[in-house]
Amino acid sequence: MRLKTSPMLSSGRWLLFAGMLPALVLIGALLYFTFWAITFSFTDLELVGRKSVEWSWVGLDNYQRLFTRRGFLEALWTTGVFVFFSAIVGQSVIGFLFAASLRNATSGLRSVIEVAIMLGWLLPDIVAAFLWSATTSPTGLINTLIIVPLGLNPVNFINTYALPVVIIANIWKGTAWSYLLFSAALDSVPREVVEAAKVDGATPFQRVWRVILPMIRPHIATNLLFITIWTFTYFPLIYAMTGGGPGRQTTVLAIFLYEQSFSTGKLGYGSAISVAMLAIVGVLSLFYLRMLREPK
Predict the structure, then answer these.
(1) Nearest 5°: CA angle at 75, between 71 and 78?
(2) 184 SS3 class
(3) 166 part of a folded domain
(4) Among 128, 213, 221, 258, whose CB has the most other CB atoms within 10 angstroms?
(5) How confident is the prediction along the chain (296 residues), in pLDDT tens digits per residue?
(6) Cis upstream peptide for 246 (omega within 30°)
(7) Burial per residue of 175-202, b for 16 or more beta-carbon CB atoms within 10 angstroms, e otherwise
(8) Residue 33: inside a domain
(9) Mind giving me the DSSP string for 69-133?
(10) Domain containing 120 — which CATH number?
(11) 225 closest CA partner among 283, 267, 148
């Protein structure tokens, strides 16, 4: 027996296809550029000069170079430290603490704190970089209000503590996302369940650890997935504040990729770096996606 298609679906088939077309174009563009990035990673393509038009295949030479020269591994370590303390520990934990603390706060206090949290997120990266550079300079706010009044010499925080300053700046800029997500997640937790745990004698820590966190587990995994990807490939704030310096203290993979591809002009090697970053982010994404699954 031949199945008949619904007249409504038949008449709207082209409309559905038209609605899907932008998504298909975007997916096609992503696959196209990914294909060429992988292809060029096996070549000696350069930005300018003869190798920009007469490039040749070099096999796995670019990938071997990733692990036999210090630049990539140092940038990978710096990126790991930046992601762990800035995103996983900083934005995620602080965002959750703000969301949990402000649940029972008055509307006025909550509004003031939310505006302060959102301000960093809404500011352009260049403006945020300028503010933090000015704040941590020898004549900046920290030295003027704290260091100098204590009788100490001014400290150039960018030169002395470059990576911690960049980490703190990124926490300040990105915590709003985690706060908003955790606020919505905590609002979905039934108060009756929390009150029942309180009646059973659970301490505040036990209520959070054994009741609230397991219930918002998918939200935690979603938050970690997004902020890890964003922070792992983050470029503007760090580059505007330090340019990867002083030395190579803040040279994360995104800056190292930029330097190799456009400052040095080694597009083939830069493509290998981008493919390696894609692979690392893919592994991290699979880990977080497994967290999204309900435990058996």
Answers:
(1) 145
(2) helix
(3) yes
(4) 128
(5) 455 555 555 556 777 777 788 888 999 999 999 999 999 999 999 999 999 989 999 999 999 999 988 899 999 999 999 999 999 999 999 999 999 888 878 888 888 888 888 888 999 999 999 999 999 999 999 999 999 999 999 999 999 999 999 999 999 999 999 999 999 999 888 888 888 988 888 888 888 888 899 899 889 999 999 999 999 999 999 999 999 999 899 999 999 999 999 999 999 999 999 999 999 999 998 888 887 775 55
(6) yes
(7) bbbbbbbbbebbeeeeeeebeebeeeeb
(8) no
(9) SHHHHHHHHHHHHHHIIIIIIIIIHHHHHHHHHTTTS-HHHHHHHHHHHHHHHHS-HHHHHHHHH
(10) 1.10.3720.10
(11) 283
Q: Is residue 89 part of a domain?
A: yes
Residue type at 288 in one-letter notation: Y
Q: How many domains does the chain have?
A: 1
User: Which residues on neighbouring strands pair with residue 43, listed in sequence order?
Assistant: 57
Length reported for the chain: 296
Domain holding 109, by residue range, is 71-264+275-292
Q: What are the residues whose beta carbons fall under 8 Å from the beta carbon of 187, sequence distance 6 or more?
A: none
- For residue 43, give the 3-state DSSP assignment: strand
At residue 200, the 3 state secondary structure works out as: coil
Q: In the chain, which residue ranges form alpha helices assigned H by DSSP? A: 7-11, 13-40, 61-68, 70-83, 93-101, 107-122, 125-135, 141-142, 157-160, 162-187, 191-199, 204-206, 213-215, 217-232, 236-241, 253-258, 267-292
**Residue 183 within a domain:** yes
